[in-house]
Amino acid sequence: MTDQGNEKRVLALDVHPRSFGFVVFEGPNRMLDWGVRSFRSGANAVKIPAATKFLALLDEFRPSAVVIGERLTGRTAKQSRMLATIERQARSRRIPVRRVSRRDVNRAFVGFESNKYEVASALAQQFPALASRLPPRRKCWQSEDYRMGIFDAAALGVADFSKYPIIK
Amino acid sequence: MATPKLENYLRTYRKQSGLTQGEVGFLLGSENGDQVSRYERRRRLPPLETALACEEIFGVPVSELFAGVRQAAGREIAKRRLELRARLQAKTPRASGVLVMAHKLRSLDDRERPVVANQNSSTA
To answer: Could you tell me which CATH class the domain A9-136+146-160 is placed in?
Structure first.
């Protein structure tokens, strides 16, 4: 049996106004699950609330920490509400919430920090399972592909592991 | 503090292989992926036949696919092994049974070491 037992499990989240990307890490080199969960409202509103979806992730993976991005400006009201929900639910289960800044991400991806796509490409190389989810490079008139949420969350997770290395 | 292993890692290996739940379900002989979903979400524990089929599908040993179950079983056995050894040592065997008793204790000792080593590595 390979020894992968000492690794901390971390849930990294990238919250957008209508969805959140998530990646579950077990140690810095192993991804357990990844995806995007939508919580859009309006005509095509999703039926399951975002908080329920987030709780399902906490229940399924029982992470030792939740990692979210530190963004000081440009947050929508829905994003702020979602972040507050995440913090409240995680605290209720005594799971610490850690914030990782853009600068931490750049430090973890030296040589790829010029833009998000470069970081996403580096992640796709590091984790081949993600390569099929890498969206094409967007043109300046296009909006961001929803799959970028997975890569942004993965970048936050990797940055968190380099910021808080595992002490055995 | 170490994070305990998940009961199973079926979803991780399925996603890494790029297969859908429906496709894994088909390989397992089901009509759809519902049962696979139940296994992944730990609502059901698959029977031995299915667990071995998963090993074949993903090319990963059962003990790794069901690492949490393996860890829990290892802990239980280690506990009972100690108890059994204490029980055996408390008995006073007849002259003819001394060799049998020694053999049993030796075999318990032999089996104890790897499991304890394994547990130490996974709970350190």
So the answer is: alpha beta
> B59 vs chain A: nearest CA distance in angstroms?
13
ipTM of the complex as predicted: 0.82
Closest Cα in chain B, distance from residue A77 (Å): 32
- Global pTM value: 0.83
In chain B the first and final C-alpha atoms are separated, in Å, by: 8
Ordered per-residue pLDDT tens for chain A, 168 residues: 444 445 789 999 999 888 899 999 999 999 999 999 988 888 778 888 888 899 999 999 999 999 998 876 667 888 888 888 899 999 999 999 999 988 889 888 888 777 889 999 999 999 999 999 999 999 999 999 999 999 999 999 999 998 876 554
- Residue A32 to residue B6, Cβ atoms within 8 A: yes
| C-alpha separations of B30 from A44, A142, B21, B57 in Å | 32, 42, 10, 14
- The closest of A131, A42, A108 to A78, measured between CA atoms, is A42
